[in-house]
Amino acid sequence: MDFANVASQLNAGTILPEGIVVATLLGVLIVDLILGRNSSRWIGYLAIAGLFAAIFALYLQWDNSNPMFFAGAFNGDDLSIVFRGIVALSAAVTILMSIRYVEQSGTALAEFIAILLTATLGGMFLSGASELVMIFVSLETLSISSYLLTGYTKRDPRSNEAALKYLLVGAASTAVFLYGVSLLYGLSGGQTELNAIANGIATANLAQSLGVVIALVFVIAGVGFKISAAPFHQWTPDVYEGAPTPVIAFLSVGSKAAGFALAIRLLTTVFPLVAEEWKFVFTALAVLSMILGNVVALAQTSMKRMLAYSSIAQAGFVMIGLVADTQAGYASMIFYLLVYLFMNLCGFTCIILFSLRTGTDQIAEYSGLYQKDPLLTLGLSIALLSLGGIPPLAGFFGKIYLFWAGWQAGLYGLVLLGLVTSVVSIYYYIRVVKMMVVKEPQEMSDAVKNYPEVRWNLPGLRPLQVGLVTTLIATSIAGILSNPIFTLANNSVTHSPMLQAKAVDSTQVSAVSAKPTDGL
């Protein structure tokens, strides 16, 4: 085989965005090696510039006519482009909020950013991986980097405990997932590419065999851990409470988005003949996640633990689009994850600012915060109200789109449960907002009474301010000006060959449902 044929099969241009992230990672390490501590003032901006360059490279690859890399191991279709963009953008905002936090914790910023970029790289590859070895390597790159980030503040015993719990539960889930994909490898006759696995199972007439069902259950268990869906959520509250706050901000958005991308690709490609089975399992996961996440969040006294259970509940809402298994369902998932990125990172930015200034994350300590820090109060209030689905914020339109897609697919019980649990969630979100805004000056908490003067000219606080204002504006206007995001989400589904059959099915359903109206 000559070099031209090898190059055409490799199609390395497909992973140009990931190549830019690798170059950025190496640049961060080299600059830190040469300049040492003096590089910490601008090394974060170097990483952010590299991530935005990768996002721009993703934009240039939209509607790529030849998206396959390395003979089918990686699929750079429009669906993967959107998910890779979410992972990269969440990493960029996380770096903005982590500069001051990491420096104040007394740890090295360059190593933190390097590990975060490695996790980003794993998440981006996982979003487009279409071959078992690529999936496993990408998953482990993301997971191991996440373990390291969780225990990065070595002097904090809570961080060490969170990292150990995350590692033990994560290793068990990886073993379960690996056993599931090894079953797929055997049942398909030794195939590792997802389409070849599906064809091998169908050719051997094993679609309804016990082996495929066991593989499906094990694969769903691995994916459920990654998206922190109940009952695979046990790690989430402890990790959220003990890990550095910027790390859980990235895990709640970037890691979750990569997990959903993997779920879509595996379920629609490998398990189309057992669709009813996996829809039933994910319906159960969605029900458990929405009920447990929202009900347990009511009793939380720590802001980070409250957002941990909120994250479990949000995964339940997103799974409604997955269970719908239609064009509208997948598009609603993408739309919600895009707006969830801004509102969740806005909330975590506010929590980081408050903890840096007061040293606590207890909900009761937010009492009367409006009197001392109106900007932080506004940002946290908008983020929490958007997470609760209050109109006209972005979260409201995201939930409406998800519920509409589920209702159109006949998931009436799931949608009604989503509506009820959304109302429950509004209570614990508004409780925090009321505490910050309504309390009288004499009812301020001790932390707010001793609140330091708000100054943005201190080292590392300017990036936090930029991150707060940017995510606040995006959360506020993304709902009102949501049409471009709707279009992006829909196009990413209709332009992806893997999901084009879903688009055709949706079109046929719409045409059939329109006939009686036309007759009238």
Rg over alpha carbons: 23 Å
Query: Unreliable segments (pLDDT under 50, ≥5 consecutive)?
Result: 503-520
Give the number of helices: 21
Overall residue-averaged pLDDT value: 88
Fraction in beta strands: under 5%
Q: Given the C-alpha coordinates, what overall shape results?
A: globular
Description of the structure:
It is built from 21 helices and 2 strands. With 520 residues, the protein is mainly α. It has a domain at 341-497. α4 runs parallel beside α14 (327-358). The relative contact order is 0.09.
Name a few traits of the molecule.
520 residues; 1% strand; quinone; NADP; disordered C terminus; mainly alpha; oxidoreductase activity, acting on NAD(P)H, quinone or similar compound as acceptor
In short:
This protein has a domain at 341-497. It is built from 21 helices and 2 strands.
Topology:
Blueprint: H1 3-10, H2 16-35, H3 43-60, E1 68-69, E2 74-75, H4 78-104, H5 109-128, H6 132-150, H7 157-187, H8 194-203, H9 210-226, H10 235-242, H11 245-270, H12 275-297, H13 303-324, H14 327-358, H15 374-388, H16 394-408, H17 412-437, H18 446-449, H19 461-477, H20 483-494, H21 500-519
Antiparallel strand pairs: 1-2
Helix pairs in contact: 2-3, 2-5, 3-4, 4-5, 4-11, 4-14, 4-19, 4-20, 5-6, 5-11, 6-7, 6-11, 7-9, 7-10, 9-11, 9-12, 10-13, 11-13, 11-14, 12-13, 12-17, 13-14, 13-16, 13-17, 14-15, 14-16, 14-19, 14-20, 15-17, 15-19, 16-17
